[in-house]
Amino acid sequence: MTRPPALDHWKLIAGCFVLALSSPADAAKQEAPTNASPSARPVTSPIVSPDRRVTFRLVAPHAREVLLTGEFMPGSQPLQMDANGSWSVTIGPIEPEIYHYNFTIDGVRTIDPGNADLKTGSTFSTLASVLEVRGETPAFYDAQPVPHGEIRTLWYQSKSLGTLRRLNVYVPPGYDTSAGTQPRRYPVLYLLHGANADETAWHRLGRVNMILDNLLAAGKTQPFLVAMPFGYGVPPGALTQPGENTMRFGKDLLEDVIPFVEARFHVSAAREMRALVGLSMGGGQALTIGLNHLDLFSHVGGFSAALGAGSDFPQTYASLVAQPEAASKKLRLLWVGCGKEDGAFSASQRFSEFLTANRIAHTFRATAGAHTWMVWRRYLHEVAPLLFQQ
Description:
This protein has 390 residues and is an alpha/beta fold. The chain is built from eleven helices and 18 strands. It starts with 5 loop residues before the first helix and ends in a 7-residue tail after the last helix.
């Protein structure tokens, strides 16, 4: 399951979307910009004004209807077309955040061709345009003038899956200078993405590196590495038996990813120095794998975790609840969070009730928000300072 270079792959796809919005005549005009009419020239979209009102624009002279949908508003908003075939709408003011949005052109959902900033993943269903509205002061996920770590991309041979796979690893500031005859041994957070995403999601969309850089600079967290693997043990979208993907990915994580990270980086192999956290699909994986391997992990967390209906909790977590006092002592942190507007909320709430009924110490955070990166970035910002505390 070789992973293609995600950015170049999606740039090509975005180019195809742009071409799809133009007729052959429009394309010919674009090849000769000096003679192009205003409606054939590329437009910039979105445009964020100082008052945080945002204008979205699109050139589609042959379209009959264009709608805007986005995380910054309920429902959809129609764009209006002018005499030159340019569509536009202004929304806002919009609260500072990073949002995803799409256009729907005559019933076809697509990206904003004027915006090169894309949300991508391992399937087309996640393709969306990105809007960032900045506030008067930097957000916790913004790049700030502090020491910065690095995102390193590595390839490893997964013996359990029989294929070459890609892994992204965040190393904190000062990691290389700490190496020596007796290098510092860092803790590791294994951080899992959600369905239809890939191993790049947590730094491209979650901004894990910026969040941790800022927390470290403020003295609010300990330095640790973050390993971000590709969370599919089967091809995305493949028809599988329930639990098969988690089982196959779990073998890759335990038998290949962790040994590779511990051989490649200056990290501790002690269970007290390993954490497993994920979102959505990855949240379900983190809870299932982590809570059944307390010999390997001391910190476990699920953000908006995919947990199913809950009827299988006693079977899935049988080893956890068999000796609740011993399990709670081993767990330095068990953190479960979900937004109240998220479809996964009721399952997360039932899971917390299951843990409470079985005397498993944990934290359950019910917050505002839906199934979005806006929630998951905040959760990471809250959980990171709780990891690997002495």
